[in-house]
Input
Amino acid sequence: METVLSGIRSTGNLHLGNYFGALKNFVKMQHEERCFFFIADYHSLTTHPDPKMLHVNVKNVLAEYLAAGLDPEVATIYVQSDVPEVAELSLLLSMHAYVGELERTTSFKDKIRKQPNNVNIGLLSYPVLMAADILQHRATRVPVGKDQEQHLELTRRFARRFNQLYQVDFFPECQPYTFGGELIKIPGLDGTGKMGKSEGNGIFLTDSDAAIRKKVMKAVTDSGPTAPDSPMPEVIANLFTILKAVSTPDTVAHYTELWNRCEIRYGDLKKQLAEDIIGVIAPIRERIQDIINDEAYLSRVLKQGAEKARESSGATLAEVRRIMGIKPF
Ligand code: TYM
Output
């Protein structure tokens, strides 16, 4: 049996990218493997959220996980900060993580650009904490979207380095995972880049049908294909990427054919896309509304999750301490 782990930062409601990048793949695996899914609230502190919002967001994300199909009876669902062992493991791993390699990560360079007045140590050591999240359970598979590929590469590097330095075969090398094989990047509806929580280009699991239709109808397009089989510009390819995620292969083939014949009408494509997105989101949204106010249930899920996660994490940490030479007198 493999150990699978994934997580999402608690910086706001989950969007289609989070769903197709991480949640959906994880939900499919939870019955077969040893599975951990967590809410990365320590990681979200790197952007200094309002303390009141942090708590609300953790609660919302938990309800969204459960509504999307995570089953607390089979998977371990927990909040990162409920497992303090991860902070110590991150500290220990940081002794073998080099400033140069962390400064070169794309996510760090991105953040420097986005928040030049808040380049904190947490941002730099973000991949170390992420490696600790994964290595504390000695996970081998990590369902993530394409944007996390580099972080997983670093996790493998830290694991290898640790094993080599201490001459042990302790940490496994984890692999990113999706069912199709290819890691997915759900684009935003603004024509460029990826869908994100704070980019203003997202469709959220809590969006109403009307909001979804409105957002999709406003998505950026161009003036249309000019010759049969002409190459697809990025803005249109983006709509097709989302279509592939939410629609049937027949629907995708139908619109691809229309594109190739220069007969596509973007209005029709968008209407179809909106309805198929609603098909994915509406049932999840309805379950969120059922779950979100059941405080007793949510707190039970997290209590049980924290206990199971700490057991796994504590065992790894004890071994890491021993390997590194931290022993009781
Ligand atoms: P976060 O919160 O940015 O995103 C959570 C998950 O959603 C995926 N994702 C996407 N996938 C496809 N298209 C998109 N537009 C898109 N946007 C987000 C991400 O790839 C990710 O899988 N560092 C992580 C959280 C984390 C974590 C971990 C994940 C912390 N420790 C350990 C796995 C294992 C993050 O910021 O994800």
